[in-house]
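Minutes, project huddle
Topic: does the predicted pose make sense with copper (II) ion bound?
PN asked that the exact inputs be recorded in the minutes so nobody has to dig through chat later. Recorded below.
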Amino acid sequence: MAVAVPPPERLDRLERVWLPRPGVLGWLTTVDHKRIGLLYFWTTLVFFGAGGVEALLLRTQLARADAHLVGPETFDQLLTMHGVTMIFFFIIPMTTGAFGNYLLPLMIGARDMAFPRLNALSYWIFLGAGLFLYSSMFVHAAPNAGWFDYVPLALRQYDRGLNVDYYALALIFVGISSTMGALNLIVTTFRLRAPGMSMNRMPLFCFAQLAAALALVFALPALTADCIFLELQRKAGFHFFDVAHGGDPLLWQHLFWIFGHPEVYIIVLPAFGIATSIIPTFARRRMIAFPLVAMAELLVAFIGFGVWAHHMFSTGLSTATLVFFAAASMMVVIPSTIQVFAWLFTVNIGTPVFRAPLLFIGGFIAFFVLGGLSGIMFAAIPFDQALTDTYFVVAHFHFIIFGAAVFPIFGGMYYWFPKVTGRMYHERIAQASFWVTFAGTMLTFFPMHIVGLLGMTRRVYTYEPGLGWDVYNLLETVGGFVLAIGLLMIFANLAWSGLRGAPAGPDPFYGGTLEWTIPSPPPHYNFALIPTVTSPYPNWDSRERLADREAFARGVGVLDAGHETPVSTVADGMLDDVATMPAESGWPPLLAVAVTVGFGLLLTSHYATACASFALAVLCLVAWHAHEPEES
Amino acid sequence: MSAHDASVRVVRAGEAARPNGWWGMAIFVASEATLFGTLVGTYLYLRGQAHHWPPAGVPRPALLAPLGLTTLLVLTALPLVLAAGWARQAKRGPAWRALGLATVLQIGYLGLQLHELSTQIAQFSPRASSYASMYFTLLVVAHLHVLVGVALNLWLLARLARGLTRYRVVGLRATVFYWLAVDVITVVVVAVQLSPRL
Amino acid sequence: MTRVPAHRAASVGLAAATAVLLAGCGGSQDTLDPGGRPESKIAHLFWVMLAGAGIGFAVVVGLLLLGWWRRDRADLPGGGGERAALRLVVGLGVVVPIVVLVALFVWADFFVARVTNAPAASSTSLTVHVTGHDWWWGVRYRGSSAVTANEIHIPTHTRVDLIATTEDVIHSFWVPELNRKIDMIPGRSNHILLEADHPGRFRGQCSEFCGLQHAHMALVVVAQPPQTFRAWLAKLAQPAAGGSGGAGAEVFARDCASCHAIRGTAADGNVGPDLTHLATRRTLGAITIRNDPDHLRRWIRDSQAYKPGNLMPSFPLGSRDLDALVAYLGSLD
Ligand code: HEA
Ligand code: HEA
Ligand code: CUA
Ligand SMILES: [Cu+2]
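Predicted holo structure (tokens), as shared on screen:
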């Protein structure tokens, strides 16, 4: 090992070893988790914009009774695309793809994800799936049967165009990406933690990511199978869902929600993770009830698999079934209440500074509780049977998704902005943007409870006046635009600060986790020396950090012989191995192109050429694996 | 600073711990097993809805061929496990030959299964009923997994022919793990396939 | 897509105007203004849950504000430290919710649900069979030959067993002021209890997304005193009254009979609603427009303007045919 080399030269060497290719080619062939995280970030932001514009169009149409801005067909497409985009192309890739990818290795002291090329592939597949889905907009055949796409409405008999084929294939397609991403996150948290970071010293953010990734791996197959059945029925004349041939329309619903409910916790878990990162930093103390919170995060992902039929309370299932799922739905609340009070009392017992990130987390807690409480109401069977499929549901899930899953994303954007860009955001404007967004969210989604109670059903492209719904709908629409202004303030602040912000330094907030021990923006190799961890908040262990620096000066634990990162044992985080990471590769994007073309051909029923295209993808795989990391 | 010192005398892969590649495969297998769980669950669900299973006019599945073939497939686990063990001991020749043997058997299995499938499709179409749709979907997905395994084996054979590297050993260990999972899955699938006979 | 062409804009505008008038004959859909026992139980459940939610929300927001208020003090109000905080987390995060949730679970899912659940066999004295269609409701009464659509009459103070089925995709039957909703699913017949404790018109709406005109798939439940109801049912069971016909009947036989039935005539189509007693209904197109000669005329000529995508083609009939047809339909009392 490089014991004799003095520190500056060691840094130089690391820099040379990890230097990416310059220019666009560097981004196309990158395997750096930070670059891939940024690619995810920008792409999901664009999808968020698309989903948001769709939402604003919906809201404009619904601003008053009997409006004719768009016809029913367009409305149905906008509605479905809004739901599908936000769930599958914004929030999951944003939380796991962007935040998980960028931050997880930094928090556990790794130099990359466990499978860097797979990581690149999951991004390119995601991009391909998104382009595939959005190409439907240009032929005016976007999915139109709602985001849960119930059969028989989604069968060829009632929906003849390509709309639903786009839906089913796009979800299978993006599912491949999410599975690969989740697999990568799991193995990374299992194996790439810095020496000494045993499971119980892992930051709560990583627990949340791990729980979400595990849930993804076990939830997605149900959706994939469901979509495969649907395509086999639509395109090949198989029978899974039609009664006449022994199928059952409820089969679709069961499989969809077996995926769909774990999915909602997949959505919110990374947000919990962000909250548990921001709160200790600004409350300036450790999370209280740390093990309880870690357990709660894993538990919620687990119990979430046993509640799916609460989305089917009014389908006429047997009473025993309903009661079982109602009980489970009540049970799944407990891990959430534990976390809420752990956050609240950490803030209370700490000495919090209410800067923008913490404000967003405050908003998150309020909205999460609001949405969670209406969730409990839905777990009461008779109430659900009355209010299901009304705007009360829309209110529930927007509070808990937009309020509770997206607010921490904004908080997180501010919080890690200095880390990613090396510059500070503008605090005053950030705080103002919080209040505007907060007010907009309340105004948009709160009246939905009331119109729901007044009997307004969801997914109506228009409604008649005189039912008492008009005023509330108008308020919601106004709220939607206020919200949009708040969002633009956030993005404007970040864009401007990215260019002009004051330099931030490595650790502007004195955060507790490892990402704050390294320069901002992080060097390509993340950690010049691999830290040894003795607590969940290693950045606050000043003695250990000092020891790290001394060790670095002596040349211990630098790992600069190649693309190397340490590998630890799963439970105890004992150093186990040094992994050689693969270098950049052009094969993942090429493979994704072949797969995308393949899906396009499947869509248009060119099965032979589709097979050829997938065969090309396999060839890309062969070529990719011909290059072994140790050779470079 | 014991951990830092330990980095100097790093444990080399292949020995005690399971490499990352193995873990990746384990997660992948978990996801595939869930997929099969969903398929099997759907089969049972549809069966629960039906009055006659298989529906009138559809032959009950034959016993002999599926049972025999499955036994064959499960037996290939033996040379595979041996191959992984030899590869870890850097015995390239024996590992290659064991892997080759397994691959030949597996290709035979796949060929016979596809033959079975095509004769059955001639008897009852997957478009006839939910039973037929589910039956063929389940089998085809299972066979696809064998096909993927065979492809992995062929690739490994090609790579191992040119020498052993750590990367290839990890690849072999992961692939063998994959096969063990496919064996278990196949047993479950066959049990489900034959369940109307029970 | 189905855009409304410019020349239809006028009729669309009119539709909007009439819709205002229509609201009066549809009734409202306020879940908190119950018209019968089941819904009043649900409303009660809601108010209690709302009170509980209010307290829970206040506690959480209160703690947030407290955190802000005491932001410079690193302890709890009583001076407690980390131990006390941990105990509070367990108490408020585990113990209290378990107590609250168990209570809610038992009350809602056993006691309230008993009232709102599908009625037990033979606990009812009237059975109505409602079938969902794209995008209207077919209505039959057990033990009667009466057939109607979209407007369901029931007697007050009577437990009615409603059987919900579908002809095509999934719909969901919901009359917010009377009871919970129930999905109509191919291959299944689901039951729901209807019970009105005062006469009135209770509006309802399809609440499972069923395609283009999901928004215009409403219905009305007309609760009447039992004698009035019996008279109504007896009348509906009769074949068409003004059925002698004339020119209008001929047009109907030519253009409409393939889809619509008028009992007592040769028309026996079953694609669209039964029109035997059309004139007794107050609305057309599943509560989309008022049933008067003007609207009926426009509906026949251009139903697509009111309900774009609905399954009845527009019939650009000559005005003589149209007059005769409207007069004929108007006579179907
Ligand atoms: C991020 C996503 C997310 C999350 C986290 C949740 C969380 C919960 N959800 Fe929600 N839900 C959705 C997203 C989400 N949901 C979506 C998208 C739909 C609709 C899908 C569609 O139809 O399109 C839906 C629909 C939905 C339904 C079906 C409604 C219907 O269509 O009929 C139900 C029914 O039980 C339900 C229940 C719950 C419950 C009990 C929780 C619980 O986990 C909530 C737990 C949290 C709390 C309770 C907050 C903490 C409260 C306190 C600390 C206060 C003190 C509390 C007590 C004393 C009890 N949800
Ligand atoms: C992550 C999930 C998510 C998110 C964030 C949102 C966000 C919003 N949603 Fe919704 N929504 C769903 C998931 C989500 N939604 C789902 C699953 C459904 C059900 C669909 C179905 O029934 O099938 C639904 C349905 C739904 C409906 C019901 C329609 C109906 O039933 O008829 C409505 C109506 O108001 C609505 C509104 C909104 C609004 C106003 C926002 C706002 O919060 C949006 C705010 C965003 C913007 C205004 C965009 C601004 C962004 C930019 C400007 C970015 C700039 C770009 C760059 C810098 C590159 N949504
Ligand atoms: Cu019928 Cu919605
Ligand atoms: Cu759910």
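Observations noted during the meeting:
- Strands of chain A lie at 564-568, 575-580.
- Chain A touches chain C through 90 residues (CB under 8 Å).
No decisions taken; revisit at the next huddle.
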